[in-house]
Design goal:
The chain is built from ten helices and seven strands. A five-stranded parallel β-sheet has the order 4-1-5-6-7, with helices on both faces. Strands 2-3 form a two-stranded antiparallel ribbon. It is of the alpha/beta class. It is globular. α3 (57-70) packs parallel to α5 and α5 packs parallel to α8 (162-181). The longest helix is centred in the last third of the chain and has 20 residues, at 162-181. It has helices at 14-17, 36-41, 57-70, 90-95, 107-123, 138-145, 151-158, 162-181, 190-194, 212-230, and strands spanning 7-12, 19-22, 27-30, 46-49, 76-80, 127-131, 185-187.
Length: 232
């Protein structure tokens, strides 16, 4: 008979919240199908999803520390951040392309926040699990962020559109490196996307949120991870 990890806590952003962009209605919405968290629940696990749209690592650290002090009933916790942390205030960039601009969370602060959350979870007897980032598509995302703004000014600041991809990737790589340095299990959702030559077709119009097909990739990845790592 299997002994199963029953209680899983999730802290993350819109990826694990199951949010996609509805191009027909021109707004973000929740998946109509079960998201990754629900798929894990099919294995008999009690999953508490604390993921929120727009969440960054510093905000999540504060919320998590408060929650841990009050008491969190979990054996393991999945941490998924970086997509909002690495983003810039594009209106400011468009207005002042000759100035230096910082992301919402600098890479160093981001790494410190993840490390702090890992340690806090362990201090409360909860095993941390890190998840890296699905890839984004530079062209799609550039077109998205430059809507209503001076796209030429943004491009001048970027130097080339592919900087968007590389900058985003640096946060995903930081998570992977932290998983090694901190001896955490890693859920690698990035590689399954990149195994598709047309991975951009698994992203929404905004070039950063996985679409329904993209979420199927995430769902299967988390389901496989839970079945292989969390069931003993």
């Amino acid at each position: 008979m299997f002994n199963m990890t029953k209680n899983i806590a999730v802290w993350g952003d819109s990826v694990l919240k199951g949010i996609i962009y509805d191009a027909g209605r021109h707004k973000y919405k929740y998946l109509e199908r079960d998201g990754a968290v629900e798929k894990m629940a099919q294995l008999g696990m009690d999953v508490k999803n604390n993921a929120k749209f727009g969440m960054t690592a510093p905000k999540a650290r504060k919320l998590m520390l408060n929650a841990l002090e009050k008491g969190v009933d979990a054996d393991m916790a999945i941490l998924e951040f970086g997509g909002n942390d690495c983003d810039f205030k594009w209106a400011d960039v468009a207005e002042q392309p000759d100035r230096e601009h910082q992301p919402n969370t600098t890479l160093e602060v981001f790494k410190n926040c993840i490390a702090d959350m890992v340690q806090a979870l362990r201090n409360h007897g909860i095993t941390p699990i890190l998840m890296n980032l699905p890839p984004i598509h530079s062209e799609k995302y550039f077109n998205w962020i430059s809507k209503g703004l001076n796209g030429e000014a943004i491009l001048k600041w970027l130097g080339d559109k592919e900087l968007i991809y590389r900058h985003h990737e640096s946060y995903s790589l930081a998570i992977m490196n932290l998983s090694i340095a901190l001896s955490c299990d890693l859920i690698d959702v990035r590689q399954p996307f990149l195994m598709h030559r047309d991975y951009y077709n698994y992203l929404c119009e905004d070039g950063i949120h996985p679409n329904e097909q993209g979420h199927e990739i995430i769902n299967q990845t988390l389901f496989d991870f839970a079945r292989s790592k969390l069931i003993k």
